[in-house]
Design brief:
468 residues; mainly beta; Pectate Lyase C-like; 2 domains; 11-stranded parallel beta sheet; 10-stranded parallel beta sheet; 43 strands; globular
Length: 468
Amino acid sequence: MLKPAGTNSLWFGQVDAINTTIWAQFPEVNPNQQRVELNVRQTVFYPQKTGINFLTVRGFVLRNAATPWAPPTAEQIGLIGTHWSKGWIIESNLISHSRCSGITLGKYGDAWDNTSANSSGGYVLTIQRALTNDWNGSTVGHHVVRDNEISHCEQTGICGSLGAIFSTISGNKIHDIHVQRQFGGAEMGGIKFHAAIDCVISSNHIYRTYRGLWLDWMAQGTRVSGNLFHDNSTQDLYTEVDHGPFLVDNNIFLSPVNLWDMSEGGAYAHNLMTGIIISQPDHARSTPFHSPHSVNIAGFTNIAGGDHRFYSNLFIGDGGSRRELEKLEPPPTSPIFSPQGAGFGLCAYDVRDVPIYTGGNVYLHGATPWKNETDATVHATFDPSVKLVRRKDGFFLEFKLKDHLQPARNRLVTTALLGKASIPNAAYENPDGPSLQIDTNFFDAKLNRQSVTDGPFRNSSSGARKLR
């Protein structure tokens, strides 16, 4: 990795039998007057072998590693990584400037690394080999990654293929991920997990990334709760070929595209969504689902789409102008978009054959309900003027409310209300098994059982609001 301090470098290299030659340009910087760093170390803190369990890494500044790009079929080496181990605590660290990934909770390496085709069949074989190599909750996962600041990594802030099961990712600030676009691939995001089984991803601040959170394959028993997403260039949340059950609650989604949904069996409750939702089936790939709270594979099937639950969410549109929809790449009118739905609100699901379940959602400023939604609250012309403002003492959400945006008919979202995701026939439960109820908001304040409001915070008064 070649990096002049304080700027971006443009560089490439050539290797022959004798020499390694590197050409570099330093825009607007004189390299004779600035520090130039040539980094060849692959990692900063990473075990040489697997099974190094129960380590705590706390309070370090971890920077500058030439980590390799890795797909989910291969060992993923991060600036710091757990290397197929169990029970690590990675907390209160400053982690930055990884050539590829900051923190990895990924799989072991083997003879098939970087040889499997970049296909669903290649990854199915990877999963099957992992099961024979002790992929289970007794051997790997159960990590805690909390209160770190992770930035300026060109692949992912946190990633993990298979090795992140039963982990908690909370309170992290993740920003400036894959912003230079130095290379492409299917692993770019603030957080990117394959098989986030029974993971809790909560109270993170994710911004200025390519994709904020990417849950790819086997997000079962996963809970995404109380996170703040904004200024993510592709989308805030991408759910790819997951069969559920997974829960997304009390999040603030502020990027132009909030959700790219290529999954089924999700439950969305008490979220603020100010951007576009895209709904898309995937009939080409057959992906696994599991027994509840387990890695044991119960079957394989493709993604028909639908079978989601949406309760007490607050959707805000762009006033019906459709300008943001026209900016999508590709636009919804192109042939590649033909099986998809896209829009502000749940109208994105109007084209799905499998129904969704709804209750108590509110739609403002041009956001539109699902075509079969019967109890939606719609104020098409009311603009709450939502904006996020950064000040010296933090980020503030500013908006306006009306008194009648408090539907008293809403119920607490519970395991009983959500039922079971149809494909795995599994209930929406807490990761450790017991039934759940969403009885707090984004700020962990208790919900009023007699009048459960929409969105991630208490709508206690009308007029202008400002929340830190």
